[in-house]
């Protein structure tokens, strides 16, 4: 089992929670980004720097993650590739993507993209809050515990 992190837009508090969980539970964690990342040295934590370009990090994670792994991303199309493979996928606010909700989430995302492309101002997500951090930590802990028991 590995934790895969779409690190290009990963909030700092989420990164810190993941680093602590990796050490505490002894789970290898891979941060994938198209820029250089500076993380604490650990035998359990690694980084992969992919080339520049749209969705290059996503492609790397999609081709590398396996059933029983956990991934953290806010990229819904990437989540839509991972969920059918049996990868547990969380967004940085602690929402779990599942077989039951991924099609709807992708549809809403595509609809909002069409609105933005046609010039409609849709606004962006709210800032990352302490409540978001707590929700992420709780969901991560629950899902890692479940995955580790299933091994």
From TrEMBL:
Question: According to the lineage, what is the superkingdom?
Answer: Bacteria
NCBIfam families found in the cross-reference section: PRK00124.1
One matching Pfam family = DUF188
The record's listing under InterPro entries reads: UPF0178 (IPR003791)
Its protein name is UPF0178 protein AA314_01119
Q: Which family does it belong to?
A: Belongs to the UPF0178 family.
Organism field: Archangium gephyra
């Amino acid at each position: 089992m590995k934790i895969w992190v779409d690190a290009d837009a990963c909030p700092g508090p989420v990164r810190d929670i993941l680093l602590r969980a990796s050490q505490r539970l002894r789970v290898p964690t891979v941060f994938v980004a198209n820029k250089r990342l500076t993380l604490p040295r650990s035998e359990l934590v690694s980084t992969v720097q992919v080339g520049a370009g749209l969705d290059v990090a996503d492609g790397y994670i999609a081709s590398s993650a396996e059933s029983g792994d956990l991934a953290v991303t806010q990229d819904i199309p990437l989540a839509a590739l991972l969920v059918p493979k049996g990868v547990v996928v969380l967004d940085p606010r602690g929402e779990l993507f599942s077989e039951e909700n991924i099609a709807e989430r992708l549809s809403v995302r595509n609809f909002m993209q069409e609105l933005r492309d046609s010039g409609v101002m849709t606004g962006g997500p709210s800032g990352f809050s302490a409540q978001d951090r707590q929700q992420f930590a709780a969901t991560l802990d629950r899902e890692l515990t479940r995955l580790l028991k299933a091994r």
